[in-house]
Design goal:
This protein is of the alpha+beta class and 171 residues long. It contains six helices and four strands, in the order E-E-H-E-H-H-H-H-H-E. The protein has a four-stranded antiparallel sheet. Helix 2 crosses helix 5. The chain starts with 8 loop residues before the first strand and ends with a strand.
Length: 171
């Protein structure tokens, strides 16, 4: 949290896995990699090394970043992040994995790290997001139209994203 200053970035979604992590980051500053991610990863590595009484790097190379250019990809990416523990066979439902923002999205937990409004504003309510994610789990492409807000009720993607959204994926 110390390195993720609200004026520089917001965490939209996350999932910590045993051998990698996913962060969907709303980037609000120039030079994000050097000013935010590098200090964050150094701090995280030091903390884990101290906790585990070990030395050396935790990760095999630099983080990967991809620019999110449209709303559909953003929604798919968020559900992909939240379903990663299920697809990896670690749990049978996304809410069973406590190391992700999914429980914050569906209202089972009220954490302060994720800022899911960009995603949740696309749906009528938290239950609609849960149904959307479960449909992806079951690979059902057909979703009832009433899960989503009417176009005239939700802000446009451009209005909501003055800055780039950047999923940070690391293996």
């Amino acid at each position: 949290r110390h390195h993720l200053i609200p004026s520089q970035s917001s965490i939209i979604a996350y999932c910590l896995m045993p051998n990698h992590y996913h962060l969907l980051v709303y980037v609000k500053c120039e030079n994000f990699s050097q000013s935010v991610m590098q200090p964050f990863l150094v701090s995280y590595t030091k903390a884990i090394n101290k906790q585990q009484n070990r030395v050396g790097p935790l990760f095999q190379g630099p983080f990967q970043a991809r620019l999110v250019k449209n709303e559909n990809y953003l929604l798919e990416l968020t559900s992909y992040i939240h379903l990663n523990p299920v697809h990896s066979g670690l749990v049978s439902t996304p809410e069973a994995w406590k190391y992700s923002s999914y429980c914050d999205y569906i209202g089972l937990r009220h954490g302060t790290l994720p800022q899911p409004e960009i995603i949740l504003n696309q749906f009528t309510d938290r239950e609609a997001y849960r149904l959307y994610t479960n449909a992806r789990l079951l690979k059902k492409p057909d979703l009832p139209e009433d899960l989503f807000m009417d176009e005239d009720q939700k802000p446009s993607f451009q209005e909501k994203t003055r800055f780039s959204l950047l999923p940070i994926l690391h293996s």
